[in-house]
Design goal:
Shape: elongated
CATH class: Mainly Beta
Number of strands: 8
Strand content: over 45%
Number of helices: 1
Distance between the termini: 32 Å
Radius of gyration: 16 Å
Largest sheet: 8 strands, antiparallel, barrel
Number of domains: 1
């Protein structure tokens, strides 16, 4: 199912390519929650194929996790609904591969979902506040699976 979601997102990006279509990049900082609250970071890139639809890939670092690190690679379909020329709300759904560097741990694939709100300073620069749920991290040596979430403030640049 996860491979199907990724394939659908990639194919859908090429279905409609209007004049307003734009690739974008961005980065952000936030409060990541795994076994405790940590400072998280994110880099992302995407393609906004219409005013309301796009696809995005991202790398998240959740900070320290039980003395090790936790990260995620993700791909998602992003729906955006403009409220006025400057404000919009968004939702995303996709797949994520969560990784840890704990001994006896590795990778775990899960569903990614998120909600956000954004302010567009102009057609190129936007500020986004969003919540993302990455599902569970890989099990540690004791079999515990912590959930990974992130509240983030992101800067997005559209070309």
């Amino acid at each position: 199912m996860k491979k199907t979601l990724i394939a659908m997102a990639i194919c859908a990006a090429f279905v409609a390519i209007p004049a307003s279509a734009a690739p974008y990049i961005g980065a952000g900082l936030g409060s990541a929650r795994t076994d405790a609250n940590h400072t998280g970071s994110k880099i992302f890139a995407g393609y906004q194929s219409t005013e309301n639809f796009g696809v995005q890939v991202a790398y998240n670092d959740f900070g320290s996790y039980r003395g090790a690190t936790a990260t995620a690679w993700s791909a998602a379909v992003v729906g955006t609904m403009p409220i006025d020329p400057n404000w919009d709300v968004s939702a995303k759904l996709g797949a994520t591969e969560n990784r840890t560097t704990l001994a006896g741990s590795g990778r775990h694939s899960d569903i990614l979902w998120g909600l956000g709100a954004g302010y567009n300073f102009n057609k190129n620069v936007a500020l986004r506040f969003e919540y993302e749920d990455f599902g569970k991290l890989p099990a540690d040596i004791a079999g515990n699976r912590w959930k990974a979430t992130n509240w983030g403030l992101n800067v997005k640049y559209s070309f």
